Amino acid sequence: MPKNKMIFYILAITVSLISFVVAFVFFKWINKQPSENAEILRVGKLIKNGARTFLKREYAVLVKFALVVTLLILVFLPTPIWKQTSFTDILKENIFMSVAYVLGNVLSALAGVIGIEVATIANTKCAEAAKQGIRPAFKVGFRGGSVMGMAVVGLGLLGVTVVYLLTKNSTILLGFSFGASSLALFAKVGGGIFTKTADISADLAGKVELDIPEDDPRNPAVIADNVGDNVGDVAGMGADLFDSNVAAFAATITIASVLSLKLDVDLIPIIFCYASLGLLASIIGVIASRIGKNGNPTHALNSTTYLTTGLFVIFTVLVTFLINVEGKWRILLATVIGLGVGTIIGITTDYFTNDTKKPVQNVAKASELGPAFTVLSGTSYGFLSAFPAMAGIAVTSLLAYTVAYPIDNTITSGMFGISMAAVGMLSIVAMIVSNDAYGPIVDNARGLAEMGGLDEEVIKVTDELDSAGNTVKAITKGFAISAAGLTVISLLGAFLEEVNKIVNTLNTDLGYIKYEALTGFDLLDPVVFFGILVGATIPAVFSSLLIRGVDRNAQKMLKEIHRQFTEIEGLKEAKPGVHPEYDKCITIATTGALNELMIAGAVTIVVTLLVGFIGGVKAIGGFLLGNIVVGLFLALYMSNAGGLWDNSKKYVESGHNGGKGSEAHKAAVIGDTIGDPFKDTAGPSINTQITVVSLIASIMALLFLTLSIF
Amino acid sequence: MPKNKMIFYILAITVSLISFVVAFVFFKWINKQPSENAEILRVGKLIKNGARTFLKREYAVLVKFALVVTLLILVFLPTPIWKQTSFTDILKENIFMSVAYVLGNVLSALAGVIGIEVATIANTKCAEAAKQGIRPAFKVGFRGGSVMGMAVVGLGLLGVTVVYLLTKNSTILLGFSFGASSLALFAKVGGGIFTKTADISADLAGKVELDIPEDDPRNPAVIADNVGDNVGDVAGMGADLFDSNVAAFAATITIASVLSLKLDVDLIPIIFCYASLGLLASIIGVIASRIGKNGNPTHALNSTTYLTTGLFVIFTVLVTFLINVEGKWRILLATVIGLGVGTIIGITTDYFTNDTKKPVQNVAKASELGPAFTVLSGTSYGFLSAFPAMAGIAVTSLLAYTVAYPIDNTITSGMFGISMAAVGMLSIVAMIVSNDAYGPIVDNARGLAEMGGLDEEVIKVTDELDSAGNTVKAITKGFAISAAGLTVISLLGAFLEEVNKIVNTLNTDLGYIKYEALTGFDLLDPVVFFGILVGATIPAVFSSLLIRGVDRNAQKMLKEIHRQFTEIEGLKEAKPGVHPEYDKCITIATTGALNELMIAGAVTIVVTLLVGFIGGVKAIGGFLLGNIVVGLFLALYMSNAGGLWDNSKKYVESGHNGGKGSEAHKAAVIGDTIGDPFKDTAGPSINTQITVVSLIASIMALLFLTLSIF
Predict the structure, then answer these.
(1) Which of residues 316-375 of A touch B (CB under 8 A)?
(2) What is residue B1's three-state secondary structure?
(3) Angle, CA of A384, A241 and A199, to the nearest 5°
């Protein structure tokens, strides 16, 4: 380590600030793009207002929730206030932690708001730009996504750096991370339910029942559908990756702080160094990104990702030469292993959802015989698709642990290796978010082009951009789930270290050994095993509630659409001046989503507390493992099966197996509808659910240790 | 323990023999029942021949497989033949184990054959008896099922007693159990694929496309469908429960033998004692069973189960007074906890599949809006339904472990408690099998009554019997999965004891400590964790292959049905003398099932070997846990969702939500079709898959310990 390790913290702050500058410049640039079409502007405004209304109502609910939690933290965490010996302790622990929690919430929400604001401008500008051709339209869409990418990762890195520099306390950092995650949980769930409620209803009413195009302005759910893309895919996803990123930091720093003490070397600056280099590489990648001469947007997105990955490896290798810490190459190797395997998992996952490969084509073929076969063959591929990613995570963990283990020859250095692999996978997350947020922007642009009555040629351009978004999404999703998987494994390690820190303090205070230090979690210990089995059910129960939420709300909205087509005269016939009541659909989606998200969140948290107070820290260790194992499986299965069905439908629509209007098409649309809440509500929310539970475990460690029944 | 502990072994043998006598008497009684209708006899014969042909072809494949495995065992297991020091060791270990393996196969196959032979007689007799009313018909159906129940449990108990008495070696017993399980795996998978291939094709072609009744003789797949009920539900399920039962014995005896040595008291006779009392209680229950004055068959089946449970508790309490072993009440308590929780889980599971409860009715209602909602709401309930059973197993394990732990204050006594809970749950398995095998018999009878042209009144009687079978099936399935869950947990404990036995022997032979004894499996150990993640994917991959098998074969068969209706003149119009080519459909189902079952079985076994030789015994410990956790979840989800969809369809057919022919009905039929391979192929096969993997782990322990990379 260079003597002045502050240089790495300064690097982190500088790079975050650069990312904000880039985001600001892009934002200004997008705003300057021309927009003339009055209809596009009108509809764009409806979408923007719908998204803002939803966010406002959602945040109003979440503020109340966050206030209650802040108060609870203040009184109980990390140590109940009446057990603190001095006001300094209360200040440095309880007050700092509650402030950190609030800050986590605020930054996470801010990332979402920024994303929404940009996306709801970029969508109209992108539709207009499509008139000039694919290259300018791509640029608008991608830069829109990049603003989100820069904001999410910049805010995360800056937040973590500031909180850590001010407190030097990893437990407080876990509190900050918990704030980010609990907001992400609700944003993801609420947005996910909203978007799929609207999407399913719009699709079924439009394509299946009335046989009108996807974004026909007569469809009462069409605005809600476009709002959903923003609140679900942009704001929700942004909060989600903000949370994974911060959680990976928090876990790694927690483990590193223990290891640093043991080795008497401060390892934490390395974490900030690598993370800053990752963001730097992403910034360069984003700025350099442009569509090639072949005009292929998928190619442009992918090559930007590869460029970023390459830059990151070069940067870190160079910097590692300059660092003076024993075992540094082991740390770097663990980091690079994470990034490498992440890429491989992304590519493997792509196999199951890419329409040039067998799975999508076979499911399209099976659809010829009816929807039962669409669902069965998709389920079969979905189950299978979990294998490469989970085996990949298994191998990564084993390798990263083995590589890092010799640093200290303890479980701490091994787990540090795994957590650095997570940091490695997440190093290019700014790039991933940019690619991901690009999707809903161009999807919206497509809808706007159609509703604005632009030419067929223009719509085709937006179609092509949209299709590239879908292809890339499959890869980035595999990447995001794997990174979250490694993160939660690291959080399990962090939990162990937190417990042992507390055990040490308690025993020292008592003057004798009352609490035993944890050396691990034996899965044959009945309390651990109890935790594992109960933990294994949580992602399933959580998913069940989310799917039920979409299911119930979509049924309501579908009835509302039927009502409007029956009662509003001239709507079906597209009589000029007759508009559907878009806001009724938006209200149904909003109210429904807010009702359901509280239940799903509450169940998860309550069961965690129950298991903790019944079985104590050992049961919680098992509980986290059960969560991770079944959660990873379900997240992969649902995301991949959903993507597969979506692309099979598109494959049929592009003229295969009978094409649009055929029996196969009807079956494929049903498959897609089933896949919608799988891939965009339940699947991607599970990550966040596991992270929240893991963080609760860590920050409640003292209470679970001292107050449990078993 | 009474001084002469042989009394308990004699008890076991006597009770098994009594069960054979009861089975034989019932069989004779069934054979004596009248049968006059020529058409029923003709079709009954077609079914019997179809079932026999399938079994013959299946066993022909399995004999080859078993021969190869026998040879491998002879050479390698439990110790490679060239490492044995004397011929006596080879005889007592390798030769005995291969013989035990063969015996396990043979008895398991025999149980299946007996079941099929009885079921394919009882079906025709039951159809005829229905002319006299529900009470005689119920008696024929239930006694038919009981023959199977008695045979399965009697053969299992007798086999285990004889193998143990002759060898006194629990490792050999694990080999016997492996024989039973590997045959069960193939029987379950092969039968499951066969039955659902035929069922789906018959349903889709009949109900959806041609709008003819369920068992219309014009349908070319109708005989294959009825054959499938026998080879899947009777033979497959019989082999499955034979395997669970034997595996629970083997695991318990393995653990008990270690514990007995430590305590210097022989605990094994108690296991035989309780198991014998369970079979005795079941025999009395079966004989006493009759339909009450209210004529309700569901009530009759359930009250028989409760009677058996009550008798078992009374018997064991009384006998335990006579036993003279310290800690005997703890052992009894663990056993009774298992039985009690099993019953509670059964009842809870029933909630999700009973048509008088909300889930089934809500799914029927959701179907009004189309199949996407049928699938989504069913999936949501299915995910949720795993919670009570898994939490129940978690609580049972924790309680049984805690209750038994003080016997020796080690993990061994704790795990002994869990394994006794499994024995307790399985104590009334003869009753469960009787109830379960009753289902396909009356289902067949219903089909025969229709094809034999019996009166509407008679068909209604068989309908009522069939519906009772379906209701009870949900409860017994929950029971069977929970029992299998506890059994595989016990097998994990048995694996640990096997490894430690080997570690002891190896170290003693070497004269120094080369291998460390296992004290458990730490889930933060990277090798264990690697095993957990890979193990977690196996039930999913396995299910994926099974669903794919059904999916592919049903598509083939559906095409064959279309061909017959196009090419065979007069078939559609039911011209007298024109019959479809039933055997073509039977051949498709048979060939397809045999092809798919080898792949699914092979993948499971190969991955287990890979993980064992890469990560050694620790990785295998994790691998088993991953298997158990995801396996339990998937088994519960798929069985319950499938049952739910099946009953929703029946609920709609009984006139709700638009009734037969409505949009809701079409959607519900699609849901049922999707649920078919879930509940009757993949779901119930997972138990057996996990058991096979667990047993391979135990019998390969020496090789995994000494030859692994990590």
Answers:
(1) 366, 369-373, 375
(2) coil
(3) 70
Sign of CA dihedral B410, B416, B417, B419: positive
Contact residues, B window 377-396, toward A, CB-based 8 Å cutoff: 377, 379-384, 386-387, 390-391, 393-395
Name the residue among A414, A543, A625 with its Cβ closest to that of B526: A414
ipTM over 0.90: yes
User: What six digits make up the tokens of B598?
Assistant: 């080898």
The CA distance from A409 to A407, in Å, is 6
Instruction: Report A:270-299 residues touching B (Cβ under 8 A).
Output: none
Output DSSP code: residue B522: B
A133: left (phi over 0), alpha (psi -120 to 50) or beta: left
* Identity at A570, one-letter amino acid code: G
Is pLDDT above 80 for B278?
yes
- Please check the confidence at residue A285 and state whether its pLDDT lies above 90: yes
DSSP state of A379: H
Helices (H), A264-370: 268-288, 297-322, 328-353, 358-366
Q: Is the pLDDT reported for residue B3 higher than 60?
A: no
> Could you tell me the CA-to-CA distances from B299 to B292, B358, B444 in Å, in that order?
8, 21, 21
Looking at residues A180-200, what average pLDDT do you find? 90
* CA-closest candidate to residue A671, choices A393, A265, A477, A382: A382
Specify the amino acid at residue A485: G
Tokens of A496: 């162990």
**Angle between helical axes of A268-288 and A429-451 (0-180°, round to 10):** 30
Percent of chain A with pLDDT over 90: 52
For CA atoms B514, B515, B516, B522, the dihedral sign is positive
Helix (H) or strand (E) holding A542: helix A526-567
pLDDT at A326: 82
Q: Rounded to an integer, what distance in angstroms lies between the CA atom of residue A147 and that of residue A123? A: 13
Contact: A540, B633; criterion CB under 8 Å: yes
The secondary element (H helix, E strand) that includes residue B292 is none
Strand partners, B522: A522
Residue type, B601: G
Structure tokens, A646? 């979506």
Cα separation, B516 vs B489, whole angstroms: 23
Q: How far is A452 from chain B (nearest CA, A)?
A: 31
Residues contacting B503, CB < 8 A, separation 6+: B515, B516, B517, B518, B705
Q: How far apart are CA A259 and CA A270, in angstroms?
A: 13
pLDDT tens digits, one per residue of B429-468: 898 889 888 988 998 899 899 888 888 889 888 988 888 8
Is the CB of A629 less than 8 angstroms away from the CB of B629?
Answer: yes
Beta carbons of B670 and A525 less than 8 Å apart: no
Per DSSP, helices labelled H in A511-525 are: none
Of A555, A629, A674, the CB nearest to B369: A555
What is d(CA B446, CA B133) in angstroms, rounded to the nearest whole number?
Answer: 13
Q: Could you give the CA distance from residue A98 to residue A102 in angstroms, rounded to a whole number? A: 6
Residues in chain B: 710
| Per-residue pLDDT at B323 | 85
Q: Which residues of A touch B670 (CB under 8 A)?
A: 370-372, 375
Q: Are A404 and A413 in contact (CB under 8 A)?
A: yes
Q: What is the pLDDT of residue B601?
A: 87
- Sign of the Cα torsion A524, A528, A532, A534 reads positive
**Inter-chain touch A524–B521, beta carbons under 8 Å:** yes
Residue B2 pLDDT > 70: no
Q: Please list the residues that pair with B622 across neighbouring strands.
A: none
DSSP state, residue B217: T
> What is the pLDDT of chain B when averaged over all its residues?
90
Residue A214 has pLDDT above 90, yes or no: no
Asked if A544's CB is within 8 angstroms of B384's CB, the reply is: yes
